[in-house]
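cache lookup: miss for this entity combination. No prior model stored, computing from scratch. Input as submitted by user K.M.:
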Amino acid sequence: MEHQRCYIYELPKTEERSPKRQRTNRYNAQAQLPERLQTYRELWAQQEERIQEQDTLEKADSAVQGKIVNFISASSSMPDERKSVIPTGLIVAGPSIASHGPFFERLGRSIKEDAGSAYVVLTSGECPNLKTLLKNLIKKATSRVDDDDEDDLDRPATSSKHGPKLLNYDLGHIQEWNKRNRVSSIVVALQDSEAFDAGLLVDMIDLFHSWLDRLPFVLLFGIATSAESFEDRLSGNSLRYLEGEKFDVTQSDDIIEKLFSATVASTHVRLRIGPNISRRMLDRQKDHVQNTQDFCDGLKYAYMSHFYASYPSLFLKEDIAFKDLSPDAFEAVRNLPSFRQWVEKKLEQGQAQEVRSLLNSNEYMFEQVMLHIKSSQQALSTLSHAAQVLSNTREALQMSPKVRLSSIWTRAASGELSNSPLLRETMLCIKKIPSDKLVLLLAAMQQLEGDYFSMDISLLQKEIDKLLQTNDTNAPLRTQHDVRNDNLRTTVVAQKVLLSKHKAALSEQDKAYSDLVGRFYDKLEAYFDSAFIDPRTLFLSEVLVYDLKSPHTEVFQPKPRFAIERALASPHDYLGCDCCTGVDGNEAALSATQPATAIVYQMYLESGTLINVSDLWSAFNAIAGDGDEENESKTMAIFQRALAELKYLGLVKPSRKKTDHITKIMWKGL
Amino acid sequence: MVSTKRRRDDDDTDEGTPRKLRARITEEPPDEYEPFEAQTPSRKGRAQQLAENGTPRSILKKTGLANGIHINGTPKSARKLVFETPTKPTKDETPDGTPTIVRNADRSARRKSNRRILERALNGAESEDEALEEGDILAEQILAEEEEEEEDEVVEQAQQAAAQEPIPVPETPTKRGRGRPKGSGKVKKPRSPTPPTELPPHEEYFWQNRPGGTKTSNNTLSAQSLLNHDEYFQAMQSYRDRHEPEMQFLLELHSRAYDQWIFELDEGFNICLYGYGSKRTITEDLTARLYHHLLEQVPYTATKKTPRIVVINGYSAGTTIKDILTTIASAAVPTNVKMPNQPTALLDFLLEYLSNNPSSHPVPVVINSIDSPYLRKSPNPTMLARLASHPCINLICTADTPNFPLLWDVGLKTQYKFLFHDTTTFAPYDAEIDAVETVNDLLGRSGRRMGGRDGVGFVLRSLPENARELFRILVMEQLTLSFVDGGGLGEDEDIPATPRSKKVPQTKHVVSESSQGVEYRVLYHKAVEAFVCSSEVGFRTLLKEFHDHQMIESRKDAMGTERLWVPFRQEELEGLAEDLAGDAF
């Protein structure tokens, strides 16, 4: 089977015992797996719903798509009028190339539905030259099956009816097709316009322009850089044939932000991802310009890992009953670090009796767990909400630098936010807030008022309204901390200049206003203080927050080269055998017991760019051979195999500089 | 060739005695007087030698400078003057009446510099660092010679010593350093023989790639030491890896993750396994596990139906995307549906069919070595990505090379939706690699592919007489060419004297790398002359037979002329020639 190219798997005859039996008597980490997976599916379905509705994928671009569709229908609405320019949409889709494909696909769907146009997407890969571009265009537009045998059947018919037969890159095909279908316009979208040859674009535009009297073309260009740089690439002549309009697509950064607040930083989430993992996911988005799909995948995998690997995750199941649980589940909870912390705290407080019953009674444990899951979830939601409040506050105050909600949340979740400079700065700003801004801020906050943010905003609003009514000047009210209420006084005493600050005398209104702001400030500070806890100190935080970086990083950001280099450079790391740790305590020394490829690889690392195979062989024979002439062929065989493996892994290539030499092409760790 | 031969004869007669003489001189450097006295009883010889050092040597020095390597010529001529009659210095140098040595030296200098320029043009990149090196050497030589003038006797001693040493093959640029007098070594910067350790990777790269940095020995593997397929498999059969239990343990570790992987597949991800070692065992086990897993599910329980899992061995030669698609189609689409022929159309059809008729579970597709050279080529990754992105396809693949993620850009990577797992197994790549073949390719010994000399003999025996004759001509021509190459360049006497010494094949190989083989035209004419064939068509037919058996190779050289050669090394070629001439076939 191993030398066959492709085949359908068939069970080997000999294998009678099903591997299922081995599973049942193995470790019980798999216990109640189906229930956990069930819970996972429920939770993920909720998240997916949120993603769908929040999304982004449909919703975020819908505005832009609507505009584009309107543009297309507007440009095709006057078919009788003879057009002299091709209507062109420049779609600035941003640098995340991965999301362009899905975007154009969705765009195509809405264009076909709403504008009644034909829609063809072309990518640079399939259009190396004008001829291929046209062929592809015709093929896609007319959805003609381009099979050679069918062509033969079609041709006599077409040629007899319409005179000479058309070449397969003649736009006449489209014209003919258009006669039958009567579309209002033919939209040609070039998904990655930067990758197209500039000359090809010019040719294409010229050609389309010359057909414009017969075919209603509309061009769409996907642009990853900027519309200006796109224009620079075209000649003035072809630009004259185009009538452009620019559309800015929502950038994936913003979409990610929305997704993040919906799926992670929202108050309704039952399982959250932790700060480490969310930081990683966000960094990956930023560094590798990935798309929203990837973010969702990462989130999904975090959920999967949580429920697959952790037994106590079962407690997240909605209305779980005591009878559904095996004693193992409680045992698992008792082993959680957060349980230990909690119990130790209880012991310090002298509640030994309670601790005893927690350890002994599963029923009591169950009650407590249920209780704490609720309260911890409440705390986490409050934290998320507070992050949202902080973010909105900063936005309302128009503070710079702009800090995204995702990073605020991540910092909050890692317990860094209380007493952080970011928070202090924001609070300071609130202290000095003038009345006009306060009104805006309160308005913004009113939307967030709810279970997790119970400040009486409306009361404050009433008060400030009252104050403002009495304010007869145009200037906004200021607090005592406002810089404008300070004035600097210079006095010269004994030829020395003394600078001193003095509070200007405050008006009655300002005093009242200062008092109001002071109260607001105190309340807000108290709220933030209570909300920004360190979630890791919560009991059952392991169940409610998934923050293990281990499978996540490796699974999404593998380091295959590092893995292979490590396997070859220190095989002991993988094999864990006793024999390969090095000779006489010297770790660097090559021992004969290492796998042959590892020995050859380490000699390879030591050598220069050119390697003499004959010398390599004698070195290898000195290490791995036993000095016996008769066994030399065996040593040679494993040497040959090792060398062939290095070649297969792409580490060496033949050299033509000298006989029996090979060239090194990879440097470890480079 | 006549002139070189004669010169060689001259050298032989001239140097018969002085060689030994010089040997003695070097043995006892402090007292160099006596050996001269044995030749020339008066002290005239010594005085003369000193006198001669002034003028005629400078001429030779110039030539030595011009070609940069002709230094061993210098002491020779100086020696000669010692025991010729002092009265006629111009005639002294020309035993035949013409100043051959000077002229030869000049001519060979021009010839050599021309050849070097040509060589550099042909070899391109590799000689660039040589050029650098050359400059250094030249500078060093000039310095060395200036010093030489000052302390002339001592250096001359050293030069004699140098000339006395067997000079290997001075015409390759890399070895030019050898001809330099050993005494001038003090100009050279002392270089420590051990490379610096603990360099960061990038520094190590530059250190190892510095111009003229690597000096490797000229040792070659003897033809017998490499194993052929039979020997290899025989040796491998008795070989037991001492890490067998550890490898088993690794496999066992990985096998614990199978259920997790199946869960991941169920959730719509695809799986990519990487790491050192063949991963076929793992995919096989995983496939079996998946098979049982599917067998327990709805459409298969209590029925005779079995799940269909597609397995593709990407490493096996000539795997195409079409094979893959057809196999998948055969698993997913009923046989009575007519499918398009073109791969792209087939893919479209397949994806559309799967969207319209989703099966109860996604079709599992296992691809071993998705990064194999056959699946790496341009449209394949894109098409596989489209396939993998479909929810009705579950892709499990393995990747062997360390840099495989470079195959996919961000867009493709998103489409693949891979989860990567490190599955280092340390298992040998038995099915993936043909070790013997790979090593032969690596060392440029593809001629061994068809069983070496015996294999050629076997093929030739089955061919008609004139084919054998043509092959004989080709082999003879190739041998002659290599001798001419070697003989024309190596001016020493050692080539005709010991043609099978170790150095000859090396010389040949290095020199003729770019102009290796016999020109197509030349061979054709030779063949016509020998009545092997009468037309080019016939000639081509004969050659094709050789090509089919991989007995000859052809390449266009830098000038665009086609060259043919038999891919064997010198020794084997000679053996072949003997066989052919001796009617062994």
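stored under new cache key. Chain B has three domains: 2-187, 244-422, 446-581.
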